[in-house]
Amino acid sequence: MGESSVRWVDGAVVTIDQRALPGAVRELRITTVNEVIDAISTLAVRGAPAIGVTGAFGVALAALAHPGDTAKVTAEAARIAAARPTAVNLAWGVRRVLEKLPLGAQAVLDEATAMLAEDGRVNRAAATHAADLVRRLCPDRPLRLLTHCNTGNLATTAFGTALGAIRVLAERGAVENVFVDETRPLLQGARLTAWELAEAGIPHRLTIDAAAAWAMATGQVDCVLVGADRITADGSVANKIGTYGLAVAAHRHGIPFLVVAPESTRDLRTATGAEIVVEERGAAEITHVGGVATAPEGTAVFNPAFDVTPPDLVTAVVTENGVVHSGDAVAEERRIETTRDAPTEDNAAAGYGACALGRAPTTADDIAAVARSLYARGWMPGTAGNISVRAGESALITGSGLAKGELTAADMVTVNVADSQPVSGTRRPSAETTVHTAVYRATDARAVVHVHSPHATAQSVGAPESLRFTGYELLKGLGVADTIDVPVFANHADVARIGVEIECHLAERPDAPPVLFIAGHGITAWGASLAQARDRAECLEAMCELATLTGRREI
Q1: What is the pLDDT of residues 196-239, one digit of tens each?
Q2: Sheet with 27-30, edge to edge strand ranges
Q3: Annotated catalytic, 229?
Q4: What is the pLDDT of residue 436?
Q5: Is residue 343 predicted with pLDDT exceeding 60?
Q6: Which is more confidently placed, 406 or 15?
Q7: Mean pLDDT in residue range 144-150
Q8: What letter does residue 181 receive in the DSSP assignment?
């Protein structure tokens, strides 16, 4: 197989027919929209990035076949986008090239060609970031990895995502073995991934899907690496059926579960995994193997092509931009929420028996875990950002001048809500303590999160006194249905002055939203729990990212 599994050659899309592997390496030449749709729907071409690029070339075929007929090309593009509904890259690729249609068929083809060239660069960057993260999370020795379905050259046109990360690790001499799930019912792991690993000379063992959890339970897996077909705004991951079960098993056994995908697989227009339409495929994929019946004729089947893994089971989502979602803190919070043990003596004495996360007390460890996860997402770079949790008349807050990626329980300080003065702890309280205490005095918040997330920070630069967001589904996460006006406060060297302005604003507006901007300085969000405060910051940052991408805050 060459550098790319998809090419444009003499007016046709040329690709490897994945249905024929591993028995034969057969090229497929596609020259019509119907052939594009058939290739995608029958899995001759599969894998989210690969079908995105192929779909884009399909629109180019339509544009070349119907020059000047915008209505016809648009209709053909809609047919292509509908070929597989769950994978977001297909619709993304179609939309991207369709925007060039007013410039003519050649412009559409040029954009599709540019997408193909980008794919390899994007995948290699994501794979390298993921490999770096694996080395930080896992033991310093050759690793035992597990992967599902196929995420290599075949699925992505070039290099691969999760399988690309395995390639990078193998190049570094860091792979002992790769468990390859066969991936029922169409055996993409057995037919495609095992073939790619053999071609690359990477040691691997094929296993039935049902054995993966036992491999984890018996200490034979250090890390699970998978791809994705769609990642929603909350970090839910739609991927090949069987992924969710792997995530549950990995979570049970404390094994990192990493999702590697391009940014184009992230669907920020979809708020949660519950909104994803999961494709169901034909009965014959289950009732027959190689054309031979393996079930009684007429047997009813349940054959979803994908499942959806909730974000609290995902250690990290990694794209070409690095870690964009981390579930570590979410998982820790879930553990805390379901723990019914009494507060420790130290926490009870400090006043943290009151629950800010759920049924059990929030501790300094919990705040540190959230801070580390936000650092991993690039929202608390260096020493930036701060988190606090209130208990009675005091609050526990992160210390000043500390790298949030290395924060521990010892780095917290207890301060008085009334005057922001430290009560206990060996560190200096955050320089922005007065902002936190202002929120506590003016609202019934139990936790405050301040982050320097990039899109929100960019949106606030030069902004007016407030920024209005309308029509975004994510507004529900902020407790509103349709429209929100988020205040923008001027950034001053005198942080206490910012706190005074915020407190006055909130006191005068009891219905103010639970989020705000400090111009050029990020988001402050609060809520009834640390989890809710963090979630609200995520919702606002996601809307700001959408506004950056679309140029619109009102839809």
Answers
A1: 999 999 999 999 999 999 999 999 999 999 999 999 988 999 99
A2: 6-9, 12-16, 27-30
A3: yes
A4: 96
A5: no
A6: 15
A7: 97
A8: E
Q: Which of 119, 209, 229, 328 is catalytic?
A: 229
In 3-state terms, what secondary structure has residue 207?
Answer: strand
Binding residues: 46-48, 84, 188, 239-240
Helix, strand, coil content of the chain in percent (nearest 5): 45, 20, 35
Domains and CATH numbers, the chain: 6-120 (1.20.120.420), 122-263+306-332 (3.40.50.10470), 364-550 (3.40.225.10)
Beta bridge partners of 395: 390, 415
Instruction: Return the HEC string of 230-291.
Output: EEECCCCEEEECCHHHHHHHHHHCCCCEEEECCHHHEECCCCCHHHCCCCECCCHHHHEECC
**Rounded to 5 degrees, what are φ and ψ at 311?**
-65, -25
Q: What is the pLDDT of residue 355?
A: 29
Q: Can you say whether the dihedral through the CA atoms of 190, 193, 194, 199 is positive or negative?
A: positive
Check whether 344 has a pLDDT greater than 70.
no
Handedness of CA 329, 332, 334, 340 (dihedral sign): negative
- Above 60 in pLDDT, residue 351? no
**Residue ranges at the known binding site for substrate:** 46-48, 84, 188, 239-240
pLDDT band at 327 (very low <50, low <70, confident <90, very high): low
Q: What phi and psi values does residue 243 have, to the nearest 5 degrees?
A: -65, -45
